[in-house]
Amino acid sequence: MDRIVLSYDRTSTSWTGTPLPVAQCLAIIAEIDTERKCVHAPGDFAQVERHPLENDTFQRQAALDVASAGADWVVQLDTDEVMLDPHAFFAMLDRADRAGASGLDFPSRWLYTRNDRGRYLEASSRFWRPAGSFPGPLAVKAGTRLLHARQAGVDLFRVDLRSRNTDPWRPRDAVVNAVVPSDSAVLHFSWVRTPEVIRRKFRWSGHTASMKPPLVLRRWVRRTKHPLLAVITAPLRRRDDGWYRLVSIPEPPGGAPINVVIDSIADSGEPRRS
User: Fold this and answer.
1) Distance, CA of 37 to CA of 8 (rounded, Å)
2) What Rg do the C-alpha atoms of the chain give, in angstroms?
3) pLDDT above 70 as % of the chain
4) β-sheet with 108-116: strand ranges across
5) Are the C-beta atoms of 12 and 45 separated by less than 8 Å?
6) Average of pLDDT values for 24-47?
7) I want to staple 157 with a disulfide (CB 3.0 to 4.6 A). Which of 59, 65, 101, 228 is the partner?
8) φ, ψ for residue 178 (rounded to 5)?
9) 37 to each of 2, 6, 29, how far by Cα in Å?
10) What end-to-end distance do the CA atoms of the chain give, in Å?
11) Please, which pLDDT band fits residue 132 given cuts at 50, 70 and 90?
12) DSSP symbols for 200-223
């Protein structure tokens, strides 16, 4: 990868108008960017009169435009996504290019919560098989126009975890052009946060409208505290209520342990930590 474009709001404000810890994030990046690959691309993306997902799409497009300069393909990764197997990813990108596609749909594994050191609840099929998550193509041809968040109206080369579609939100007969093992999928630490940060995420996310009901937070707290119950009861729930399996994922070297043990829910719906 030649360049990493850092897109952020210059006023440290989210798509919904709430504060973001941009300065803290930039300080961390400055420390780890030893090869000086990061290109800063600040902008004015907190336009509160617009829907948060419109701001999401606008910011992603601005970053994609910067990244497209002098490039053939642009990889679209968020800061809570980790590419476990770059070799597999770029091998599939090469196949997509040779097939004449303009986008690479590569599977993510969507992580819901961290229950203990190295133990996570991961979105799965109803009966606990790995399920791919596809928020939008993870790579697109330079100059692509986005339609909604990462999604684009381009010809896709679609990679999945099995030869038949594994994404519960897509038709079972959705086309699968190639297969990678689940260990090669991108890890999406989407809702893996401390209780304090998850509450802030619920306010600043582009999907904040669907996260507002107190029940959403209460479920997250309960499933964080009782992961086995969340797994056992998965087949009894509807798809939109979440199916999960318990997985082990190695912690990064030197990573500080995170206490996610939660005692109870206060009357206000706010979790308390032990």
Assistant:
1) 16
2) 19
3) 88
4) 81-83, 186-188, 108-116, 119-123, 244-248
5) no
6) 94
7) 101
8) -160, 165
9) 7, 10, 10
10) 42
11) very high
12) HHHHHSTTHHHH-SHHHHHHHHHH
- In a 3-state reduction of DSSP, which class is residue 238? coil
* Arithmetic mean of pLDDT over the chain: 88
What's the mean pLDDT in 193-210? 75
Burial tier of 101 (Cβ tally within 10 Å: 0-12, 13-18, 19+): buried
User: Angle 179-137-175 (CA atoms, 0-180°, nearest 5)?
Assistant: 45
pTM for this prediction: 0.86
Residue 80 tokens read as: 């809570």
Beta strands 271-273; 119-123: pairing state: unpaired
pLDDT digits (tens, 9 = 90+) for 156-198: 999 999 999 999 999 999 999 999 999 999 999 999 988 888 8
Residue 16 has φ and ψ, to the nearest 5°, of -100, 0
At 154, list the tokens.
Answer: 């381009």
243 in Cβ contact with 125 (< 8 Å): yes
Count of beta carbons in the 10 Å neighbourhood of residue 85: 15
Identify which of 130-144, 192-206, 244-258 has the greatest average pLDDT.
Answer: 130-144
| 110 alpha carbon, distance to own chain's centre | 7
251: pLDDT strictly greater than 90: no
Name 178's Cβ contacts closer than 8 Å, sequence gap at least 6.
Answer: 92, 95, 157, 158, 159, 160
pLDDT greater at residue 79 or residue 91: 91
Rounded distance between C-alpha atoms, residue 159 and residue 157, angstroms: 7
